């Protein structure tokens, strides 16, 4: 009887050791074979990846119906179009990245394509998860560096992962299952580390191996993309605090409190010349802030009453943005003074792109708008062939 009991315990030990998927919440996985189907990466290499010259006459348009196409600004013709494999994925939801002439496109259904910016020919396709247990890619901007693509994804079963893919063929380099399912914020690559916000946690990983270097917990959820001034990193919570963190240990160096009833910085944050710029929304007043990145002291603040700031970016030492009610504005980056402001007749739903002339591009529900800054004309440069309800967002990228 004793011998049988020992044998039985040994069998249970073997099953426990080899019959279960490792607890990925605390383990970096580099072998695709031991992942559950819901988290697995499948890839198909079509042609060898190569560096491609840039088609400088074109702009990439990630339309809000989920298709991405190249539009020639000289001939005003569509050059090529790519779509996700699943016909029902009619939502943009993400951004694209260009590296060495290759366009990396995440689709909301968990697919990622690498395509030639000139021809639209596919180098490789990858799928995170599978069709039945579909992974969702939302509000992501692929980070491409050191031979890998980094992106976070949410599974329909409530889990979420950070993935690193080999840019040669889209195969899995490593993945890590995060402790919380809330992951719709892009990651940051800095000093060979990947910084990943996930609900009230901020992780840092070794970018090459996926080893967890640090994990810091906060009282509130982290609700902005992390950015850097090439020395420290910065991130805001979902309420009213902006943090400066040491990138090696994630120690808090300083924190900045927003104005009363202000919150929701999300992707409205960037750093330039050792200064941090961000825009916060509010019930009565939304504001753009400039803060010294070394000390956290406020340099200036520009208020917008009874209107929420939807988007900001920087170009040529000016801050550009627009509000929920369609006010396009330009601020002097040194003092926050308004250099230009106008109420648009078309409502932007995308980022703003800046060609070399005195114009800007943005996307609205009707199509691509070319706005002349001198005449203030809104020219519908490309008209969409169909209109879709429940517009979420679109994304533009001038190829250069």
Tell me about this structure.
It is built from 1 helix and 35 strands. By secondary structure, the chain is mainly β. Strand 7 and strand 8 form a beta hairpin. It is globular, with a radius of gyration of 23 Å. The termini are far apart.
Map the helices and strands:
Layout: H1 2-18, E1 28-29, E2 41-45, E3 58-62, E4 68-72, E5 77-82, E6 97-99, E7 102-106, E8 111-116, E9 122-128, E10 135-136, E11 143-145, E12 148-155, E13 160-166, E14 172-177, E15 188-190, E16 193-198, E17 201-206, E18 212-217, E19 227-228, E20 233-236, E21 241-245, E22 252-257, E23 262-263, E24 269-272, E25 275-282, E26 285-292, E27 298-305, E28 309-315, E29 318-323, E30 327-332, E31 338-343, E32 359-364, E33 367-372, E34 378-383, E35 395-398
Antiparallel strand pairs: 1-14, 2-9, 3-4, 3-35, 4-5, 6-7, 7-8, 8-9, 10-12, 11-12, 12-13, 13-14, 15-16, 16-17, 17-18, 19-20, 20-21, 21-22, 23-25, 24-25, 25-26, 26-27, 28-29, 29-30, 30-31, 32-33, 33-34
